[in-house]
C-alpha cells in the first residue's frame, strides 16, 4: 500500500498533472513508499502522519529532475542547477528519513544512532 497517492502529490503542487504525468506519479508513489519502508524498517504501522508529506516531497523532486539526468541548464539569460543525490531521481533526505522513524522511547538522556 503506497504511503501517498497521486492526489496527495497533486495537493502539494500548483502544476496540474496530465493523465500521463499522473500515471508516472502513481508509479513514483509506489516506488518511494517501498524505498521508505526498506530504508526505515522500524516504521510504525500505521505509518506516521509525516509519511504522506515525505513521500510526496520525494516524488515532486523526482518529477523536477530531468529524465536525462541533466544537472545544469541554460537557456538564453536564464540558468538553473538541480540539486539532489548526484544521480537525480527518487531519494529521501536524512531529515525526511528521520520523520519516518519512530520517536525514541527513552527519557531525557535518550540517544538516537
Question: Can you put this structure into words, describing what you see?
Answer:
- The model has no long low-confidence stretch (mean pLDDT 85).
- The chain is 42% helix and 7% strand.
- α2 crosses α3 (51-64).
- The chain is mainly alpha-helical.
- Strands 1-2 form a two-stranded antiparallel ribbon.
Task: Itemize the secondary structure elements and their pairings.
Layout: H1 6-10, H2 19-39, H3 51-64, E1 72-75, E2 78-81, H4 94-100
Antiparallel strand pairs: 1-2
List keywords for this structure.
single chain; two-stranded antiparallel sheet; globular; 113 residues; 4 helices; mainly alpha
Short description:
The protein has 113 residues and is mostly helical. The protein has helices at residues 6-10, 19-39, 51-64, 94-100, and strands spanning 72-75, 78-81. The protein has one domain (6-100).
Strand order of the largest sheet: 1-2
How many discrete domains? 1
Helix content: 40-55%
In percent, how much strand structure appears in the residues?
5-15%
SSE series: HHHEEH
The number of helices is 4
The helix/strand class is mainly alpha
